[in-house]
Amino acid sequence: MSTLDLYALDEAALQAQLKDWGQPAYRATQIRRWLYERGVTDPAEWTDLPKALRGQLASEASVGTLERVTEQAARDGTQKRLYRLHDGQLVEAVLMPYGDGRRTACISSQAGCAMGCVFCATGQMGFARHLTSAEVFEQAARFSAELAARGERLSNVVLMGMGEPFHNYDAVLVAIRRLMSDLGIGARHITVSTVGLVPAIRRFAAEGLQVTLAISLHAATDEERSRLLPVNRRWPLSDLLDACRHYAEASGRRVTFEWALIAGRNDGEEQAAALGRLLRGLRCHVNLIPLNPTGGYGGTPSSADACRNFIDVLQDYGVPATVRVRRGIDIDAGCGQLKSKVQRRARRATPTGSP
Fold first, then answer.
1. Mean pLDDT of 136-155
2. Nearest-angstrom CA–CA distance, 277 and 226
3. pTM for the whole thing?
4. Which segments of 78-211 are extended strands (E)?
5. Any idea which residues carry the catalytic annotation?
6. Which of 20, 78, 207, 248 is most exposed, with the fewest beta carbons within 10 Å of its own?
7. CB 117 within 8 Å of CB 229
8. Which domains does the chain have, with CATH numbers?
9. Over residues 179-186, mean pLDDT
10. β-sheet bridge partners, residue 97
């Protein structure tokens, strides 16, 4: 692996490196323009740099460290990638195009996840390690470069891929700030999804960012939520909702609550009414997501009628809700699903008794 990763350097760090090489500081601006505005990642094509510097960059630096293992493309244009990290760990990233021009990257913050949510493929595989801030940032930067090269731009980023972002708080915060400064993505177009790490939510509120906070809720009582999301045993709904109110007040942003609609489990009028009572009066929006089934969980997605009825009940309590458009449904679009498939294939290909 190359000793210098350009995606790992912010502007000040890049200027310092160039100074060590005897180059003026303005070369950093030129390099960053090629990387982040034009989407050109081959130093040989950075024609306003001296030939000697281009050669030095080509031999001593890399643009990122992620190795693409495989990619799937859905009929709706969604692209899902599996990347191998330098130590062999695997993570996923997704690009979702929308008809209104939005281009949204869904990126990972950890290899695996320690939260153990029962319906999540990532939660089912357990935790391997945190990603570095550069590894988090690079997932979005790669999509951004490819879009820029064809005259488009990355407009939104959601940290909803593999891992719990607030379990990797410091690295994720650095990556968020670089999404803003280096890729030009406004805070309001960045979303962080958490299962509800209450101290981290309160800490995030003090950062002064207007990033959208999304809470994986999925149940409106402590008993049911603790069965689905073990983290609820440590921070029950009362603590979580207090932290969400605090974030909404501190940031001026409404909080998004994610609710995976599971047929016959949490999609009935009784559950909708309980959710309405729980969220009534809070500046929020409910994002209803028909379950994306995984091999480790037996639930199935709710019907269209159940989704509509759920929304109607929430409206009675003054709680706005919409059904998220299911992207990439004909591929392994749910977080962790592509990695799980690749790992199963690898196990099948390994003879019994092999190391």
1. 97
2. 19
3. 0.89
4. 79-84, 90-97, 103-106, 110-112, 127-130, 156-159, 190-194
5. 92, 335
6. 20
7. yes
8. 4-62 (1.10.150.530), 67-346 (3.20.20.70)
9. 97
10. 103
